[in-house]
Amino acid sequence: MPYSFLSHLECARTGESLDADAVQGLSPAGAPLLARYDLDGVREAVTPKEIAGREPTLWRYHEVLPVRSPERIVSLGEGMTPLLRLPRYGRELGLSRLWMKDEGLVPTGTFKARGAAVGVSRAAELGVGGIAMPTNGNAGAAWALYAARAGLSSLIAMPDDAPAITMRECVAAGAELYRVDGLIGDAGKLVAEAVSRRPGVQDVSTLKEPYRIEGKKTMGYEIAEQFGWRLPDVILYPTGGGVGIIGIYKALREMLELGWVSGPLPRLVAVQATGCAPIVQAFSQGARESVVFPDARTVAFGITVPKALGDFLVLDAVYATGGTAVAVTDEELLASQRELTTFEGTFICPEGGACFAALRHLRESGWLGGDEDVVVLNTGAGIKYPETVPLDVPLLARDGRIP
C-alpha cells in the first residue's frame, strides 16, 4: 500500500489540477493550492481502529498527508495534543461540556509546528534547498527549527515588534533573520523579492505553498479521534492567516467522505481581535472575501493579519457550517487568558484567550447553548508571551516577614 494517497493539487478558486510531485506555489489563478487524495484508496487501506494503534503523532494519519516516503519525514514528535475538559471554567460560563485542544504542548510551543513538520518534510522530499517566509513570530520560529532538522537553509523576516522569543528561536536555529519596520505584509514583499534572486529557495508564506494546511488539518483528525470518531458541536479558532480553520474544515470534509465520521459538521467560529478583524467585518456584511483592515494592531500578535490570502476559504468554512465570526478587545482576551489560567491551571497564549473571551459573548447572546460539546483551540503556550502578564509583586527583605 502507498504511504501517502496524495493524487494531485487543486486550485482553490478554479478547481484546476496541478502536479503534486513538482514544487508548487500559488495556482495560475493566483490562489492557494489544496492537496487532494485518493480517498477511496485510503478507505480500503486503513480504518480508524488501525490508526488507534499507531504512534501518537500527527503522522498516524500518513495516508492523508503528502509525504510519500516515511524516510523523508522530518519530525520532532508533533501532534496528539491533549483534549482537556474544562469543568470549572465551563461552570463559570454556563457550558457543561467545554473542552480545550492544547497546542501549547507541541514542539516550539505552538500549533505552527504542525504546518512546519509537514511543509518542511514535503519541501525536502521534493528537493527544495531552503525555505523563506514572512512571519508574525511563531511560524517563522517553527519553520526555522524544522528546516534546521532537515538540513535546509531558512530566511525569515518578521515585524520588529514580534515576540523576542521567536526571534531568538530563529537565531538559535541558524536562520537568516531580518526585522522589518512594518507589518507581516511588508515583510512578505521583502521575502518575495529575495526569493526571486535565490534559486532553490521556496517561498513558504502562508498559503503560498500547499502543505502547511495539511499539517494543520491534523488538529481536525485528532479532535474526531479523541471524541471517539464523533464530532463536537462547535469549534472556536483564533484566526489570522486562517490556515488552521481552513485545515480543520478540510479534515472534516475528508473524514465525512471516508465514512469515518457522520452527522452535521461542527459550527466553526473564527475569532479575531477588534484591532484586526477583517474576517469578522466581512462576515457581518455577508461578504465572500475581506478587505484590508486599516491600522491593524493587537497584543494577540499571531492574529495580526490585515488581509489573509485565504480569507475566502475561511469565510466559506464558517458559512458552510453555520458558524460565526467574533471580535474581542485586547482587554477582554487578556482577562480571559488570566481567568482560564486561574480556573484551570493552563497558561494559554493571548490568541487562545481571544477564543475564551469570544465564548462569553456567544454564551451571553444565546448563540451557544449550555449543553453542547464546545472545543476551543489554544494555539500556543502562554510562556512564549511573558509580556502579557504584568509582574508586580512585593520584594521582601531577607529578614522580612510574609504577611
UniProtKB/TrEMBL annotation:
Cofactor: pyridoxal 5'-phosphate
EC identifiers of the protein: 4.2.3.1
UniProt keyword Transcription regulation present: no
Keywords: Lyase, Pyridoxal phosphate
Tryptophan synthase beta chain-like PALP domain: residues covered: 74-380
Gene Ontology molecular function terms on file: L-serine ammonia-lyase activity; threonine deaminase activity; threonine synthase activity
Pfam families cross-referenced by the UniProt entry: PALP (PF00291)
CDD domains linked to this entry: Thr-synth_1
The UniProt record lists the keyword Coiled coil: no
One of the protein's GO biological processes: L-threonine catabolic process
PANTHER family hit by this protein: L-THREONINE DEHYDRATASE CATABOLIC TDCB, THREONINE DEHYDRATASE, MITOCHONDRIAL-RELATED
Protein name per the record: Threonine synthase
Organism: Amycolatopsis mongoliensis
Organism classification: Bacteria, Bacillati, Actinomycetota, Actinomycetes, Pseudonocardiales
